[in-house]
UniProtKB/TrEMBL annotation:
<dbReference type="Pfam" id="PF01149">
    <property type="entry name" value="Fapy_DNA_glyco"/>
</dbReference>
<keyword id="KW-0378">Hydrolase</keyword>
<keyword id="KW-0238">DNA-binding</keyword>
<dbReference type="InterPro" id="IPR015887">
    <property type="entry name" value="DNA_glyclase_Znf_dom_DNA_BS"/>
</dbReference>
<feature type="region of interest" description="Disordered">
    <location>
        <begin position="90"/>
        <end position="117"/>
    </location>
</feature>
<feature type="domain" description="FPG-type">
    <location>
        <begin position="279"/>
        <end position="313"/>
    </location>
</feature>
<feature type="binding site">
    <location>
        <position position="193"/>
    </location>
    <ligand>
        <name>DNA</name>
    </ligand>
</feature>
<feature type="active site" description="Proton donor; for beta-elimination activity">
    <location>
        <position position="61"/>
    </location>
</feature>
<dbReference type="InterPro" id="IPR020629">
    <property type="entry name" value="FPG_Glyclase"/>
</dbReference>
<dbReference type="InterPro" id="IPR010663">
    <property type="entry name" value="Znf_FPG/IleRS"/>
</dbReference>
<keyword id="KW-0326">Glycosidase</keyword>
<keyword id="KW-0511">Multifunctional enzyme</keyword>
<feature type="active site" description="Proton donor">
    <location>
        <position position="3"/>
    </location>
</feature>
<dbReference type="Pfam" id="PF06831">
    <property type="entry name" value="H2TH"/>
</dbReference>
<dbReference type="GO" id="GO:0008534">
    <property type="term" value="F:oxidized purine nucleobase lesion DNA N-glycosylase activity"/>
</dbReference>
<protein>
    <recommendedName>
        <fullName>Formamidopyrimidine-DNA glycosylase</fullName>
        <ecNumber>3.2.2.23</ecNumber>
        <ecNumber>4.2.99.18</ecNumber>
    </recommendedName>
</protein>
<keyword id="KW-0862">Zinc</keyword>
DNA sequence: ATGGGCCTGCTG
DNA sequence: CAGCAGGCCCAT
């Protein structure tokens, strides 16, 4: 559930608080959060200790920091973060190196009232602040990845200084907030596939950043049912769908993203307000805002889909 | 292309 | 106490 707008809220929060800072130490409370790190904890510490964070960039749901050594030289790799479905990156300005939570044992065993109960990793910075990665379900992660040139030569992502991208994010398509995204080309690729259009919206190698919530919202806005084959849609209709997806994510970003509870928050731990603006997701049993028909929920490819049976007609 | 696994906490 | 939430990875 952090999807594109929520990750962008986090990126914007991290930018002023972390860029220019040097990592003094890396505290790993649960090694599973760095399971994608080649070489494990030693390699991560080696890459980060004494290293300066020089930019925070994002493509789709992938975030990364650019890194420079003590001489100001680019290290050639990035620190990549992904929030999975329950990850949070929080910045603490007061960083007592050992917090009470440390001695309380495993991060998952603190009291429910402890906001840092699910702290998995902390980067201690040279200005006395710290970046905490909290993640209840551990689908997220933090790891380093070598930089490589993007294939189209444009700036790699929002916040990126150039066309270099972490290798582990190179297979991710540009997202709908990226000015270098070619909407017509994305639409043509969607129309070239017979898979259900919702699966195509969720395919991060076609267009990135869309998750289950915004897919359902975009399909509702464009009046397309989730199981319509991509190839059945006109170019015009797919463009309408992509523009609807972009618009709903832009509106969500304006109000700080979608949050159902304290799990999905900005770097200060605050929730966004877009949940109250959702028209389809989680609204099964409620009337459609357009036609009043009761919205339904269907299980589609193992995930729930919310739709209006009248506005979003079935493909035959 | 498709489905299972990773995870934990909450719900029925 | 089983089921559900779901992004991404991986095996089939």
């Amino acid at each position: 559930m952090p999807e594109l707008p929520e990750v962008e809220v986090v990126r914007r929060g991290l930018e002023p608080r972390t860029v220019g800072r040097i990592v003094e130490s890396v505290e790993i409370l649960d090694a599973r959060i760095i399971r994608r790190q080649a070489g494990g904890a030693d390699r991560l510490r080696g890459a980060l200790t004494g290293t300066r964070l020089t930019a925070v960039a994002r493509r789709g749901k992938f975030l990364w920091w650019r890194l420079a050594d003590a001489d100001g030289q680019d290290t050639g790799e990035a620190l990549v973060g992904h929030l999975g479905m329950s990850g949070q990156l929080r910045v603490r300005t007061d960083d007592p190196l050992s917090t009470p939570a440390d001695s309380a044992g495993p991060a998952s065993e603190g009291p429910a009232s402890d906001p840092h109960r699910h702290r998995r990793l902390t980067l201690h910075l040279d200005d006395g602040s710290a970046i905490d990665l909290l993640d209840q379900r551990l689908f997220g992660g933090l790891w380093t990845s070598p930089l490589e040139a993007v294939s189209d030569g444009a700036v790699a992502g929002l916040g990126s200084p150039d066309a270099l991208i972490p290798a582990d994010a190179a297979g991710i398509a540009r997202d709908l907030l990226d000015p270098a995204t070619d909407l017509s080309a994305v639409a043509r690729r969607i129309r070239g596939r017979r898979a259900p259009v919702k699966s195509l919206l969720l395919a991060q190698d076609l267009v990135s950043g869309i998750g289950n919530i915004y897919a359902d919202e975009a399909l509702w806005a464009a009046r397309i049912r989730f199981d319509t084959p991509g190839a059945r849609l006109s170019q015009r209709k797919v463009l309408e769908l992509l523009r609807a997806a972009r618009e709903v994510m832009e509106r969500a970003l304006e109000v700080g993203g979608t949050s159902f509870d304290a799990l999905y928050v900005n770097v200060e731990g605050r929730s966004g307000y877009f949940a109250r603006s959702l028209s389809a997701y989680g609204r099964d049993g409620e009337p459609c805002e357009r036609c009043g028909t009761v919205l339904r929920r269907a299980v589609h490819q193992g995930r729930s889909s919310h739709f209006c049976p009248r506005c979003q007609r079935a493909a035959r």
